[in-house]
Design brief:
By secondary structure, the chain is mainly beta. The protein folds into two domains: 1-36 and 274-348, no CATH class; 58-269, Immunoglobulin-like, CATH 2.60.40.1730. The protein is built from two helices and 22 strands. The chain has helices spanning 128-132, 299-317, and strands at 21-25, 57-58, 64-65, 76-88, 93-104, 108-114, 119-127, 138-139, 141-145, 150-159, 164-174, 181-188, 194-201, 222-230, 234-237, 241-246, 251-256, 269-272, 275-280, 286-291, 325-330, 335-339. It has an eight-stranded mixed beta sheet with strand order 8-7-11-5-4-14-17-16. The protein has a three-stranded antiparallel beta sheet with strand order 6-10-9, with no helix packed on it. Strand 16 and strand 17 (251-256) form a beta hairpin. The protein starts with 20 loop residues before the first strand and ends in a 9-residue tail after the last strand. This is Endoplasmic reticulum aminopeptidase 2. Keywords: Aminopeptidase, Hydrolase, Membrane, Protease, Transmembrane, Transmembrane helix.
Length: 348
């Protein structure tokens, strides 16, 4: 089962689920079937998609882009992402880095990833031998093709089939203005102060706005997430926090447990100043409700209902919730719960 946070003023999150169930607390119990349609997978209306398979796709720097299909090639698949994020809620941007462990299925000279609106500063590649002997990574040439929201990492030597490699990428971007990707949201306190938080919506294909990735459901992997923040904020992600490291300048860095294998759109992380109330379901899963401090008193009913719902769905489907915790956000009076058993769950 996976949960979605909804801010009635700022947050707009959609879901694709088995039985496609949305439950609205505080308003009514309404079940709405919903099917996600990925607009990225439709034909290009601006003529960017090449009808001639022999035609060259041109990158932003004028060089030939080595891939002209809308869907990613399957010669290289991700196994594990080690993702670091540092959002700045004052400047409203974020810096980040990642290491992606990939498996090469077929010999190739390039790796194609999704990336949308990210400034790629550096990309390197290490083979298993490089990692074993702690050799430095080989610098990769990065080409961009915005029409398909793709980047190509050109490797100096061919990647050999059945071997694993590590791809390291440093990047940065602004927190998005809309409701997709990794974006800024605001709420107003009872005293009239406007506060900013950093939230995300990666479904169906917006994880590419937050980090370069294989942003199709087929490419499942494990995720290890680290988030750097100010002491006045908290960080939340799919899995429980392992530890917090104190850094210079009063910053803190939270490290979270590695996730189960899942698609990129299920990755979740949030930086905010919310308070929470928690309880434990009969199966032992910790359930938490997060809300702005002024709305904390309204969270207890949501917690009570959430515990009952989790027990009900586990019994009804005879499937145990596979993560050790589960959480949701309550901004005003509406909480949406998305139940899902065809994908692994997300959030807190």
């Amino acid at each position: 089962m996976d949960l979605v946070f909804h801010n009635s003023a700022m947050v707009n999150i959609h879901g694709k689920l088995i039985f496609n169930i949305y439950i609205v607390f505080y308003c009514s119990a309404i079940i709405l079937p919903h099917t996600c349609i990925c607009s990225q997978f439709t034909s290009s209306s601006n003529g960017q998609h090449n009808k001639d398979p022999g035609a060259f796709t041109v990158a932003t720097n004028g060089e030939p882009f080595p891939w002209h299909e809308l869907r990613l090639p399957t010669k290289v698949v991700p196994l594990h992402y080690d993702l670091f994020i540092h959002p700045n809620l004052t400047s409203l941007n974020f810096v980040a880095s990642e290491k992606i462990e990939v498996l090469v299925r077929e010999t190739t000279q390039f790796i194609i990833l999704h990336s949308n609106g990210l400034d790629i500063m550096n990309a390197t590649l290490q083979s298993e031998e490089d990692l074993r002997y702690r050799k430095s990574g080989k610098k990769l040439t990065v080409l961009s093709y915005p029409a398909h929201q793709q980047i190509a990492l050109l490797v100096p030597e061919k990647l050999m089939a059945d071997l694993r490699y590590s791809v390291a990428i440093d990047f940065q971007a602004k927190l998005a203005d809309g409701f997709e990707g990794f974006y800024k949201s605001t709420y107003r306190t009872l005293g009239g102060e406007t506060r900013t938080i950093a939230v995300m919506d990666f479904e169906p294909t917006q994880a590419r706005m937050a980090f370069p990735c294989f942003d199709e459901p087929l490419f499942k992997a494990n995720f290890s997430i680290k988030i750097r923040r100010e002491s006045r904020h908290i960080a939340l992600s799919n899995m429980p926090k392992v530890k917090t490291i104190e850094l210079e300048g009063g910053l803190l860095e939270d490290h979270f447990e590695t996730t189960v294998k899942m698609s990129t759109y299920l990755v979740a992380y949030i930086v905010c100043d919310f308070d929470s109330v928690s309880g434990t379901a009969s199966s032992g899963v910790k359930v938490s409700i997060y809300a702005s401090p002024d709305k904390w008193s309204q969270t207890h009913y949501a917690l009570e209902a959430s515990l009952k719902l989790l027990d009900f769905y586990e019994n009804y489907f005879d499937i145990h919730y596979p993560l050790p915790k589960l959480g949701r956000f309550k901004f005003h009076i509406i909480v949406f719960i998305r139940t899902c058993f065809d994908f692994f769950p997300l959030y807190m």
